[in-house]
Amino acid sequence: MKNQEMIPFEKAYDIVMNSVFSTGTETILFTDSLNRVLAGTVSSDMNLPPFNKSSVDGFACRKEDLDKELEIIETIAAGNSPSRTVTALQCSRIMTGAPVPDGADCVIMVEDTLMTPSGKVRFTGTFKKENIAIKGEDVKKGEIVLMPGRIIRPQDIAVMASAGYTHVAVSKKPLVGVISSGSELVEPDQFPGISQIRNSNAFQLMAQAERSGATGKYYGIAKDDEEETYQVIVKALRENDLVLITGGVSMGDFDFVPSVLERAGVKIQFSRVAVQPGKPTTFGIHDKAIVFGLPGNPVSSFIQFEMLVRPLINEMLGYQWRQLNIKLPMQDKFTRKYAERLAFIPVRITDEGSVFAVEFHGSAHISAIPEADGIISLPIGVKTIEKGELVSVRQI
Ligand code: AMP
Ligand code: MG
To answer: Which residues line ligand 1 (CB under 6 A)?
Structure first.
């Protein structure tokens, strides 16, 4: 088999990102668009606010009259239009959100006024601001209010509603096929017999795919049998944009996933990455789909998905993803014995804002990962992180 050379993580990352293709766009109801990636611009079909709007409950009047008693000429409720122009020594009672009448250049808050026995209004406060939101001050008609490439959040849905959008273009969710490989695996509803273990990776990967904005489809467990593995790989390649196979990529006698991939027409780009954990991570390109062979060990599979698969899915979605580079101090000194590979270390963020490495006994220690809030990395050649040293944390 080709491409068995161990390559640095950065090179693997570039190869993965250079293989990206877009899954296209679709138009959906804006109320269904939460967590999807916006694929077009959203621009407003009107000025916002659409008119000069009172931002308080009070009295609309002229600043120059603030030291005088004012006659109330009408009441303007939100949703109503003023019918009269405010002139000297006059004011209109006005509610928050109602249009400010012509002639008035400020609104005084009801809390800052007194009613005289003759039914007039006197300002008792000190003037601070107009309390008028000017037409178009938030958004001008035609202005772009949302740019493509963002994950749609509730606050964006409010912007779409104000801008008059009932439908929006979003990126289509990539289809991700997930296959488990290994004769020792049984499904979660089974109690494993001697020498069997439960299949945890497939469901972890399905959930990671969904969390990344893709649609996961599960293809079951392929036994360590070449023909069975080949059949399920071919089917998954036909039906998905991305295929994830977990297990069968190490150097054991039955780890033939890479050779089966080649037989299925996949061009293997790499099959060894200088990372810890996750060295046997395999990556290949097929006419129809992109394929990852992920390590069988659950911690390795989890981390390699976060480091390589998730960025790829982001790119396929056109999500303008920017890794948040949070720098936090190490709570304790951390050391490792060997430094030939780039290490990814699951860490916990404490309430005090420091991080500590989550204790894990190897890449099969599945209960360690739920303790972690993030991943830090330790470059090749570096064995120690000192107590108090700042580390970049990627949240998971
Ligand atoms: P492999 O990459 O097939 O050599 O598997 C490496 C280790 O991960 C072995 O201990 C497997 O039993 C375990 N493993 C493989 N696949 C899974 C899975 N789907 N869920 C949990 N553990 C697995
Ligand atoms: Mg195996």
So the answer is: 180, 182, 184-185, 197, 199-202, 246-250, 252, 255, 295-298, 364
